[in-house]
Design goal:
- InterPro entries: GATase_2_dom, Ntn_hydrolases_N, PRTase-like, PRTase_dom, PurF, PurF_N.
- Helix 4 (112-121) packs across helix 5 (131-143) and helix 9 (262-277) packs antiparallel against helix 15 (440-447).
- The chain has 17 helices and 26 strands.
- The protein has 2 domains: 5-241, Glutamine Phosphoribosylpyrophosphate, subunit 1, domain 1 (4-Layer Sandwich); 263-463, Rossmann fold, CATH 3.40.50.2020.
- Helix content is 30%, strand content 26%.
- With 490 residues, it is an alpha+beta fold.
- The chain has a 7-stranded antiparallel sheet with strand order 3-2-4-1-10-9-11. A 6-stranded antiparallel sheet has the order 5-6-7-8-12-13, covered by helices on one side.
- Helix 10 (292-304) links the parallel strand 17 and strand 18.
- Bound molecules: iron/sulfur cluster.
- Iron/sulfur cluster (SF4) binds at residues 182, 243-245, 404, 406, 408, 455-458.
- Iron/sulfur cluster is lined by residues 182, 243-245, 404, 406, 408, 455-458.
């Protein structure tokens, strides 16, 4: 399961935007490792540097010096729609009659093909098969007829799906979040300007202060002198569809989303996991690094009550928290391995058990999710080979049983182990002594949301968008493209 993309935009008072954007992209590198790019504007012309690779490899001193101007946007990408090549690397930039446009997109549109066909029919030439270029062309077309705010509203009335965008229109920087707020986007204040970023960790990196999340359906326009920003609530919906997996896995633990520190949310999910399905074992250990916060919350809760929910006696220390699996940080992520055989080998390269921690012990292994089941099977075997008497697996999220269409590269339905297996069948497949997942109600409770305000598509198979061949969990339909073009004045 892989992160999608990270977006950023800054507008500063007379200082070059290139380096702050570069540092912010470093902070967002976990959201995409395939390509990185920055587009700036110096008041006269647009500058762009976009390449395949990691942030540290893509930009040299000369590249940053060439990105003139105090306003700009940036992007790190893991491809989720479109080709895995430089034609889809972002920010996407284009110059047209009423100026230049740069666009960074996190998410996935559901109706990009329909809009592409419509625009191609009136003469728009596309250079990539990605959905970001579709947004850029639609916006460019609307900007020929409308002012900036109304042009963005028109485009929002036509595109359907998941998107957090940072946009540069000449030296004006904008941020937009889709009407259901599927992907995160926040605003931060810097010493001499403002920043829009996928996660608040990027704001911290620049010694800035988190102002707030961009609201679903909201357009933020940063003032060109870096003194403030304007807000326009362009579209409103009854319910949000925040991706619950941002809190569980994708976002950095040190980021704040919806006023909650992600690390704290994960610890609280771990506490719930103990309350729902705690099992008394000698040690609790995380799968590094994804299970660490969950395991710490789980072990904390286990120190307070027994698995039956009774308060512990004063002389009962509960369950010991231990790091029993050591990670080799110099091995690539498992998703880079294209075949099952290579993925299996990669797990063994990545994690090594500490024998003395597990030998002769009953172990609870905590992770955030099970996708294909490959890693869990390997880890249970590793621990048993190292002398564990029993291995119980606890997962800090519900079963992943369906694919994601909103920009997460998760695996196909056929590859997902929970798509056609019961919890007990999965337990058997991974050879654990017991297995339990966290309930969806517990997730909603910890995140302080009603279930209908979360996207749980990959768990329930019911999505918050109108996707071909899939069920929805709410009253939602794709926009009428023609009507969307005339609705900007509403
Ligand atoms: S389907 Fe799952 S991963 Fe995709 S946006 Fe929804 S909750 Fe997030």
């Amino acid at each position: 399961m892989t992160e999608k993309c990270g977006v950023v935009g800054v507008s500063l008072a007379g200082r070059s935007a290139a380096r702050p954007l570069y540092y912010a992209l470093y902070a967002l590198q976990h959201r995409g490792q395939e390509s990185a790019g920055i587009v700036t504007h110096d008041g006269f012309q647009q500058h762009s540097h976009v390449e395949m690779g990691l942030v540290g490899d893509v930009f040299g001193e000369d590249d940053l010096d060439g990105l003139a101007g105090s306003a700009g946007i940036g992007h790190v990408r893991y491809p989720t729609a479109g080709s895995v090549d430089s034609s889809c690397a972002q920010p996407f930039s284009v110059s047209f009659k009423s100026g230049s446009l740069g666009l960074s997109h996190n998410g996935n549109l559901v109706n990009a093909d329909e809009i592409r066909e419509e625009l191609a029919a009136v003469g728009h030439a596309f250079t990539s098969d990605g959905d970001t270029e579709v947004i850029a062309h639609d916006l460019a077309r609307n900007l020929l007829e409308e002012d900036l705010v109304r042009a963005v509203k028109r485009t929002m009335n036509r595109i359907h799906g998941s998107y957090s965008l940072t946009i540069s229109h000449d030296d004006t920087v904008l941020g937009v979040r889709d009407p259901q707020g599927n992907r995160p986007l926040c605003i931060g204040k810097l010493e001499d300007g403002y920043i829009l970023a996928s996660e608040s960790a990027a704001i911290d990196t620049l010694d800035g202060e988190l102002v707030r999340d961009v609201r679903p359906g909201e357009l933020i326009v940063l003032e060109e002198d870096g003194q403030g920003f304007d807000s326009y609530q362009l579209v409103e919906r009854d319910h949000t569809a925040h991706c619950f997996f941002e809190h569980v896995y994708f976002a950095r633990p040190d980021s704040v989303i919806d006023d909650t520190l992600v690390y704290e949310a994960r610890r609280n999910l771990g506490r719930k996991l103990w309350a729902e399905s705690g099992v008394e074992t000698d040690v609790v250990m995380p799968v590094p690094d994804s299970g660490r916060a969950f395991a710490s919350g789980y072990a904390d809760a286990a120190g307070e009550t027994t698995a039956d929910g009774e308060p512990r006696d004063a002389d009962d220390d509960g369950v010991e928290f231990a790091e029993g699996l050591m990670k080799n940080r110099y091995v690539g992520r498992t998703f880079i391995m294209p075949t099952q055989d290579e993925r299996e080998r990669a797990v063994r390269l990545k994690l090594n058990p500490i024998k003395s921690t597990v030998e002769g012990k009953t172990v609870t292994l905590i992770d955030d999710s099970i996708v294909r089941g490959t890693t869990s099977t390997q880890l249970v075997k590793l621990l048993k080979d190292s002398g564990a008497e029993a291995v119980h697996m606890r997962i800090g999220a519900p079963e992943i049983a369906a694919p994601c269409y909103m920009g997460i590269d998760m695996a196909t339905r056929e590859e997902l182990i929970a798509a056609d297996k019961s919890v007990d069948e999965i337990r058997e497949a991974i050879d654990a002594d017991s297995l339990a997942y966290l309930s969806t109600d517990a997730v909603a409770d910890v995140l302080g949301k009603d279930r209908i305000d979360l996207c749980l598509g990959c768990v329930t198979g019911e999505y918050p968008y109108d996707i071909d061949g899939e069920e929805t969990d709410r009253d939602v339909t794709r926009p009428d493209l023609e009507a969307g073009r005339t609705m900007a004045d509403d």
